[in-house]
Amino acid sequence: MRAKRTWFHAAAALASLLSAAVLPVLGNGPALDGPDLAGGVVAMRGVFFVPNQGQWADESVYYAMRSRGMDLAFRESALSMHLARPIEDASNASQDNGSAPPRFASLHDDRRPLRESPGVDDFAPADEHLTLTVSFPGSNAVTPRGAQPQAARFNYFVGGEGRGSASNVPSFASVVYENLYEGIDLHVKGSEQGVLKYEFHCAPGADWSQIWIHYDGVDSLCIDHAGTLSIETAAGTLADGAPNVWQYDERSRDVLPAHFELIDETTYRIAVTGPVDSARELVIDPDVAWMLYLGGSGSVDYAYAAAVDSAGNTLVTGETESRDFEGRINESHGWDAFLAKVDRSGDLVWVTFLGGRGYESGRAIALNERDDAFIAGNTNSLDFDGRTNSNHAVHLADDGFVLRVDAAGALQWMTYIGGGLADGSSGVAVDANGDVVVAGHTGSDDVEGSQNAPHGHSDAYLAKVDGTGTLQWVTYLGGSEDDFGAAVRIDRDGNAVFTGQTTSDDFEGRINEYQGEYSDVFAVKVSPSGGVQWMTYLGGTKNEFSTGMALDSQGNILVSGATISEDFEGRLNERNRRGAAFLLKLETNGTLIWMTYLGGSEPEEGLSVAVDSYDNAYVVGWTFSLDFFGQLNHLNGVNDAYVVKVDSTGSPEWMYYLGGSDYDVAVAVAIDITGEALVAGHTQSLDFDGRLNEKHGGQHDAFVVRVSTTRPRLSVTSTCPSGGPIGVEWRDATPDAPAVLLFARNSGAFSIPEGNPCSGTVLGLGTNLLQAVLQINSDSDGSRTLNATAGPGACGGHLQLLDVTVCTPSNVVRIE
Q1: % of the chain surpassing 70 pLDDT
Q2: pLDDT reading at 537 higher than 70
Q3: With 80 as the cut, is the pLDDT of residue 417 above it?
Q4: Cα 383 from Cα 644, distance rounded (Å)
Q5: CB 98 within 8 A of CB 113
Q6: Phi, psi (rounded to 5 degrees) for 86
Q7: Biggest alpha carbon–alpha carbon distance for the chain
């Protein structure tokens, strides 16, 4: 029987600076028996915990972190935070409602824990102050220690009464209170964005009900109907989202019910009400690496599509009415399409406005091998910049368009696509010859370049445009009713694979029968010359639509969308109470392989899908569900954007809510060169989790968020129960970088001790004969395959890989 381990996660927002998590656990153990681990430590951007070596007069402070307007002090079995803000800022913030500004507690200077010397202070005399202290009733008396040493060193030559100079003071990425409760450690650490988190690591068999959390300096605590903990202070209300608890192994994931319970007005605990399976392994949730608002002061800044270039930059397109869009390199025309480039660190490189004096919206993006961007969308402007032809529509109805922008953001050309009535473009792809295929819908019977006749009232279409913007041909697609195109991809043979929705039961090229009450999803394959090869209906007896498509490494077709049908053909699971997102896979000949519902008990949509190098699919969209299957965190607001990972067999692996306290919608996803997900959409939330900047104003901002999705994956084949050949394979490690293979007789929980790189990293191995048996670099794609010989004593043991560049462990594998 494996040791019992459980993961508790509770996101919090203490002054928007401290977030909380309760984790399972991992006890302490002896030093590694084997060669020292090699490799660098993780650099924390803006988070440095520094020991008190006399630079601070308060001897009860063992470690501290300082930033402008905040002191965080680590004491025996407690930590305190001192916050300040200028009085005039507080007054200005309250002028809208005419009320008196909230007042922080008035504190004398001698109450400040980290005051260095007169004149050396981040806080001005006119600041208002608030001190909050977090303690843990019933805990042991524990002195904190630093963990995960950082490269940064600090010098303090401040002097003054009660203080001394300190030089070459080390810094750490986390602070640990070992055995704060019996079998439970408290870890405080920081993210790259300067956001702090605290975690409880509960060793196997430890009683997590020991943990009580008490606040001093707050007015009261209360829990709302959604399970959120509200922390009332003189500065206003802080919110701590309901706790999340789960267990998983290679086969399945279970989320355990848990909630906050108030002990009194200033003390609470976390209660777990679900059964814990002692044989289950743990999952480490993906983290939001960063989030960036895109926009200006206008009411509408929407993102609709994203792509990643060869350098790992993210290209985002959408629509904006902001003339002051941040990062712009040209002037607005009015309501424009835009293209924004964001680098891998989340810094905005440039923004290009695209359009004319009318309305434009960028709806799709594709890149060629030179990283030129091809944007498709809708316009009613007669004077679109860079046009190679004329607008076709009368009475200012929309035309579709496609355009080309080089890697520096300069517009090369733009081509209108359409006829005399309303037309639009919603998908774009680039083939191996550099030609561009555009997907969309049309109500026109006179679309320029058409090589066949329309089928019904409204048709889907595909158009081919060469690399110079010259229209080659247009093909109408559909039946006698309404058909709408969405997304398009080019397969390895140069065929266009296209998806959308239809109400036509006589769609050209169909290989099966219409299934819906009103609309079906369709997929269609079209040859390089525009001929239909096959078309398939997808759905159930009610309604569905699709907007996302991707191709995997085998040429299989992934389609995402939304449905209210409970009997969707090919389903692997059952739909929850209301409408659901879905993902399905087709063979290259249009045969349905599987379909899986995604979501919870409230509505959601799956608006885009991307596939990584291992054929895992990532679906994004929006959701109102608190209980989205596979969730790793909790709904942040009214509705959230989300990203869900689905393996190649159709099994959801995890789901992550993205957003803040207002409305958030993810519309696009792309996978970068490291395998991480770049998600784009639009938001009304001022407090979007992981943000690097502030919302620009207006009702909506576009956003792009980078989500860490991968951890090394380890697999083993062996000849147990006897010794002999053993095969070891891993994927998703840092390319061309060192990894260490670890062995232990048993699984369990072990925190790498100080003195080793990645100290503080928690392994899923026990401490019985824990050894670092091999150090070797991963290949250029982050994988490695090894063949070795193992003695009979290895059978029944456990292996785990540690990627020492990012201090991330793999899954634990039993040798059997």
Answers
A1: 78
A2: yes
A3: yes
A4: 41
A5: no
A6: -65, 140
A7: 90
Q: Do 493 and 470 form a contact (C-beta atoms < 8 A)? A: no
Question: Concatenated DSSP letters for 317-381?
Answer: EEEE--TT-TTBSS---SBEEEEEEE-TTS-EEEEEEE--SSBEEEEEEEE-TT--EEEEEEE--
Decide: residue 108, CB within 10 A, 0-12 exposed, 13-18 middle, 19+ buried: exposed
What average pLDDT does the chain have? 80
Here the tokens at position 719 are 């000849």
| Residues whose CB is less than 8 angstroms from the CB of residue 631 and which lie 6 or more positions away in sequence, other chains included | 244, 255, 600, 654, 655, 656, 657
Tokens 């507690």 -> residue: 105
How far apart (Å, rounded) are the C-alpha atoms in residues 266 and 804? 41
CA distance 176 to 630: 30
More confident residue, 716 or 505: 505
Measured CA to CA, the distance from residue 460 to residue 384 in angstroms comes to 24
Q: Is the pLDDT of residue 31 over 50?
A: no
Euclidean distance between the first and the last CA atom of the chain, given in angstroms as a whole number = 15
CB atoms within 10 A of CB 99: 8
CA–CA distance, 449 with 446 (Å, rounded to integer): 9
The pLDDT of 489-508, averaged and rounded, is: 96
Question: How far apart are alpha carbons 79 and 139 in whole angstroms?
Answer: 13
For tokens 């803000």, the residue is 85
Task: Tell me the three state secondary structure of residue 111.
Answer: helix
- Residue 568: exposure state from Cβ atoms within 10 A (0-12, 13-18, ≥19): buried
DSSP state of 42: P
Residue 182 predicted with pLDDT over 90: no
**Higher per-residue pLDDT: 398 or 120:** 398
273 versus 735: the higher-pLDDT residue is 735
Angstrom distance (rounded) from CA 143 to CA 511: 71
pLDDT at 1 over 50: no
Going by DSSP bridges, is the β-strand pair 348-354/360-367 parallel, antiparallel, or unpaired? Answer: unpaired
DSSP state of 746: S
Report pLDDT for 793.
75
Give Cβ neighbours of residue 214 (< 8 Å, ≥ 6 apart). Answer: 134, 135, 136, 137, 266, 267
pLDDT beyond 90 at 295: yes
| The pLDDT value given to residue 634 | 74
Distances (CA, A) of 226 to 23, 538, 661, 684: 21, 37, 13, 21
User: CA-based Rg of the chain, rounded to a whole angstrom?
Assistant: 28
* Cβ atoms 273, 259 nearer than 8 A: yes
pLDDT of residue 781: 83
pLDDT at 152: 72
- How many other β-carbons are positioned within 10 Å of the β-carbon of residue 402? 25
How far apart, in whole angstroms, are the C-alpha atoms of residue 171 and residue 790? Answer: 41
